[in-house]
Amino acid sequence: xxxxxxxxxxxxxxxxxxxxxxxxxxxxxxxxxxxxxxxxxxxxxxxxxxxxxxxxxxxxxxxxxxxxxxxxxxxxxxxxxxxxxxxxxxxxxxxxxxxxxxxxxxxxxxxxxxxxxxxxxxxxxxxxxxxxxxxxxxxxxxxxxxxxxxxxxxxxxxxxxxxxxxxxxxxxxxxxxxxxxxxxxxxxxxxxxxxxxxxxxxxxxxxxxxxxxxxxxxxxxxxxxxxxxxxxxxxxxxxxxxxxxxxxxxxxxxxxxxxxxxxxxxxxxxxxxxxxxxxxxxxxxxxxxxxxxxxxxxxxxxxxxxxxxxxxxxxxxxxxxxxxxxxxxxxxxxxxxxxxxxxxxxxxxxxxxxxxxxxxxxxxxxxxxxxxxxxxxxxxxxxxxxxxxxxxxxxxxxxxxxxxxxxxxxxxxxxxxxxxxxxxxxxxxxxxxxxxxxxxxxxxxxxxxxxxxxxxxxxxxxxxxxxxxxxxxxxxxx
Length: 478
Description:
The radius of gyration is 21 Å and the shape is globular. With 478 residues, it is mainly beta. Strands 22, 23, 25, 27, 28, 29 and 31 form a 7-stranded mixed β-sheet that branches. The chain is built from 4 helices and 33 strands. The chain has 3 domains: 8-160, Cupredoxins -  blue copper proteins (Immunoglobulin-like, Sandwich); 179-309, Sandwich (Immunoglobulin-like), CATH 2.60.40; 340-477, Immunoglobulin-like, CATH 2.60.40. The model is unreliable at 1-40 (pLDDT under 50).
């Protein structure tokens, strides 16, 4: 069993800490509980200070947090496929910001990248985002400026786009996973962009939350079928979740449907920014408990959630196993036979292959990572040439080579791509993704149709790696 003994004292209360302790299951807020939740088309998101308690009705609050509309995480934006999102961002911070709509295929001008797709939104100013939502699925929103601090303080929120017809599950739950680096007075530690975080695995917090709360147990009915939407909103933490002996099937990754299948080796792996939609069948009798555990870091395993079986059983004779597939989204399919190929090589970091003198020089400028041999350091202004230029509506193969000793969740803006092969081995299931977790020293081949014109970011979504040089752009000619 995981270690469940470590406790971390914050003033007069004890909070369980995810670095070495156990955590129970989240108290889910009302908006995360059902498909029938309000189709709330919020018109305004205002950034500013946010006060929140790690425990329901807790007397003490985390200080130093920022949120949208004073909420942690930000308000759930929920629409139906084909709807039009229209949101005004009002900046109540004392620094510039934007909103990036992560995973959405949208017009370039709405992508939220400062100096590339829009000017930064200055303190006191506002910017209107408006675009159609072509794909159903689980997405999220967050800043794309000074992201290490702004996300590290809590600026992010969920975006759910429902399918035209409800999926046949008994409940639809959303678990927004995050971690926080706190001191013993529950204050956010303001050591952003530390060189050790940049050169290693990123900023790893000591406190885990689900939907902004220290986890608690939730009750499920015996036989209940849950659709659980997982979002990893952490700066650098990777989650590797197991669900005891419960039947679990993956039905979507990064918002895009996949053929329902059991998780590889029984675990759901989520790097920063990645999402997964799961079907969990609550098999068992009244009184049973099942722990959801994270085991990504050996020796630092912990219980993330606990499902408590309670009440009369749900009896569904017509239930399919495996569960039915979601309807496909209208993402264009790449044609591989004549696809042009490009290569992107990621290097650097501690224990990497860079020349020591070059690495020391990079570190003096807060850099540690390279893309095709050079770090991209632009102080947020992205004043660099694109890595490659693509023709609109053509298919392309991209080979990513991770020549480092660390994991990297690589994110492409404006597009979804097929993951074709890993280390030269073709995949049986070739998922559509917008963010792909690369293992150390791994080579991954992807393919996509460059159907969305503009300059688009390509970067590691461990935010400290991005600011440390692991980012770039690619251009799709219009």
